[in-house]
Amino acid sequence: MPDNNSDMNITLIVALVVIGLLAGIFSGFMGIGGGVIMIPLMILLLGFNQHEAQGTSLAVLAIPVTFLAAYNYYAEGHVNWKFALIIAVAFVIGGYFGSKFAVKIDQSMLKKIFGVVLVLAAIKLFTSK
Predict the structure, then answer these.
(1) By CB count within 10 A, which of 14, 18, 56, 103 is most buried?
(2) Is residue 2 part of a domain?
(3) In a domain, 97, yes or no
(4) pTM of the model
């Protein structure tokens, strides 16, 4: 993992900006979690391992990051705040327990689980009407 201070060269900064822009664009455009984009890109472009990529992705996805995208959907009448609040509370609880479990799993197994989830989601999207 690159050192937070000494390794901040222009190539790294460009890679970080590209990852952030792509995650934001896809998240706002398709409503997908930015982690679906950020995690593979952090592994490929930054050389992170699965744990580093997942942890960094979670650190990025704090409430202010998605607020403006969610506001655009709200302004068009496409947000159910009651459902969002219930999901958010459950997400916080699930995120806590999921992360406690994930940090104890071997990195290679965690990467395989992540890949299977992405493949299953893709198959579902391709086969649904």
Answers:
(1) 56
(2) no
(3) yes
(4) 0.68
pLDDT of residue 57: 84
| Token reading at 100 | 């406690």
What is the token pair recorded at 96? 């806590």
CA–CA separation, 105 and 122 (whole Å): 24
Question: CA 72 to CA 34: how far, in whole Å?
Answer: 17
Residues of the chain with pLDDT under 70: 1-7, 30-31, 62-63
Within a domain: 34: yes
**Residue 94 corresponds to which tokens in the numbers above?**
């699930």
Compute the distance between CA of residue 44 and CA of residue 62 in angstroms, rounded to an integer: 23
Residue 67: domain span: 10-127
* The dihedral sign for the CA sequence 40, 32, 70, 61: negative
Answer whether residue 5 is part of any domain. no
- How many structural domains compose the chain? 1
